[in-house]
Queue: 3 jobs
Job 1
Amino acid sequence: MGSDPQFARYPNLALAQDVFTLTNPSSSHASRQASLRKLQDAISEHKMAPLYRHLAHPTDGILNATGEGSASRPPPSSRRSNGSSQKASRSRETSSVQFPWDEELYEKLKLENDKELETFTKEEEEAAETAGDTEIQAAKGKRAEFWARIGDKEKALSSYEAVFEKTGILGTKIDLVLAIIRIGLFFGDKLLVKKHVDRAKALVESGGDWDRRNRLKAYQGLHLLTIRSYNLAAPLLLDSLSTFTSYELCSYSSLVVYSVLAGSVSLKRVDFKSKVVDTPEVKAILGDGEDKLAALTGAVSAGSGAGDEDMKDATLSTSTPKPAPTAVNLTTLGSSADGVAEAETPVDFTALAGLVRSLYIGNYQAFFLALAAVEENFLSQDRYLYEHRVWFVREMRLRGYQQLLQSYRIVSLKSMATDFGVSVDFLDRDLAKFIAADRIPCTIDRVNGIIETNRPDDKNKQYTDVVKQGDALITKLQKYGQAVRLRGSERG
């Protein structure tokens, strides 16, 4: 039996997305204004003096206006990620929305923080005098959550560690480590996140309950996504879709986006069909009318039986994709950690649904158009995806090229360019990069206007590997023989 998760309310990772929106040159002016209002409201409501200083201070804040104390700005601290400073610099150059600094407001928030800390100190002293260890730990836990709530990274980490050291319950220890991971995600500290994901895995393996095991899958998958390990993130995120309860980490709609993108770029075609295209959770969001209804009613299910036998040749279909869903409200699909339903903004999944469908059926012109829309609507707007958007688009183009070329020995350069809806010159340059990097086994004959694939022969490859390994072994034996003879002559 597992207890309810603790320490799951703070920090609010949605605020980190709002900070990113303010620094993102791809964000619209309206979205920046909305994010600014959310941040200002949250700072006032939760008395977030440290976070306010971190963001808006004229000299120390990462969102401070151009020229205000920039000459005397100290270098970023070791705990602040390079991405934060780069985003801040980009913001000052491109964003017309500024986070105003109000010294009077800051002092007021700081004073209210001090008053709240005094109540925690009194509660801890009373618990130490009249109550037991459980009450003392509960009081210390409130202090740790307080630091996480107001955005003081260092004090929140030290407070959580102090509570961890005095806690003997495994479930509570896991919850504390997950809270530390969220602090790392909030401030973009990837090293801190990696360290504590490994720590949480060790705790879960030592006897964690089912719920915390599932929650850790989402945490680990999201961390792997941020460090561009999409092939490792995909199975974890896709597995989390059916059992997702980590609403303190991200919304369900965000999880769907992360899962589909990771699976699309990393899974083999057979796995892509069974784990993305045919998965009921994905169909319920991205499917057309009939597929969505069947997924929601449980009439379809994905698994090992979802084979690849009925798949059409990727290069034969040029049909137009079926209409994709426009906006989906996922409010009813889950609730937050404290059991209160949290409304999500309706998400337009049209581009994502088009990407999955066009890649699967081989409609490559629609695939490139959907890929451009996905970059604009998802990759460029999400704080976890933005850093890797160029890599993702490049890898998806490569996947489309590979999928078409594997069906042919020789293909016309012009016809392939027509299939993808690009010019011959662009296709020539793009393919040349992948060929030079040994990512596509083919050659381009520009004189005759053809692409000739070089299908790898497994038997020849095995023979070549054996010859290479044999040569290496003979070289080692010769060196060993020389060493033995030298030692023999020395003894003589």
Job 2
Amino acid sequence: MDWSSFQNAPIWDPIIGIGGNGEGSESVGEGRCVTNGPFADIEVMFYDSGVQPHCLSRGFPKNRELEELGKLVRPENINELMKRSDYGIFARELEERAHKFLTHTVRGDLSRFTGPNDSQLRSAVLTDD
């Protein structure tokens, strides 16, 4: 995936990928409903820590913000990360770079710690009395 052209990566293609940026109605996590690709117009059950049915949501940031986030995963930064011999430092930097980049650029359902159809959350919610 090209760090400098994230929104144009093949993975967001509606035919060969998982569909693009949210373009439908406003949804959760600064996102909009995904309207193309294999996940278009599906309803997911969870957001954050509870049941909140909504459309699968993505919301790529605009120009300058996307450019700034892209700097987190520039090749030279990832190369430096891969040189870390201490796992604790590596894990922290991975979270601060690649994970932050992904969650802050896709947004929507990825902006929280739970997945939109998280099976562990589903079990906890459905068995909670």
Job 3
Amino acid sequence: MFFSCPSSEALARLLVDSTDGKMAKAFIVNSETNIANAHGFKDKNYELTASFHQGSEAMDGAVKLARQYFMELPSPQPQRIHFIAREGSYHGNTLGALSISGHKARRSIYEPMLSANVSHVSACNTYRNKFEHETDEAFVARLAEELDQEFRRVGPETVCAFVAEPVVGANGDQALGCVPSVPGYFKAMKAVCDKHGALLILDEVMCGMGRTGTRHAWQQEGVVPDIQTIGKGLGGGYVPIAGLLAGHRVIDVLDRGTG
């Protein structure tokens, strides 16, 4: 059973509206009230916003939602259990979120406990990974080919989603601060995901909620994720809260399934 309140519904409306209708719904819970709203909105345009009290939990929720999407398709795809993320990435400290992460130092002592259903490809890090004299276009094409090869290596029919941060903030052993992707990168990654029927999950816990000049970092390039995590800036330092937004592709399937 789920409960709601006017403030959680107002936040959900704000979050969904801030995507200009690109994302469909959301979910809201914080550590103080443990409020979760599902089917909480009277207005069907806004129902179902998801939020958690830390980004790690939001990432766990994103991974579970991706799996649920494939299980609720008219022809379920239970073989989709694999996730592809990026080297040096950090998506959270729970076992689920840490399994997605490519941050070797944070993973090291927990490695035997982490999921084996995750693999990692090169990050879009021009300082570390771009070849001398390589253009941005050539760099993006090379990374897209690497992602496509990884899909084929693990079996494209087994992949749930590709997970990445639009702007990286905790980049493992790379010893850098904030690292944005080059123009065209996420458009190319989304094309690879679409080619193989996988979802795109964007982790905006650190870079979202206005920190890049738009409410959501993906709005800079207009590449809409299927699932998005948010946090940090969402609470503005006043309350421990994070969130999850789901796109129409995902919600339409759930609406026709379990609801």
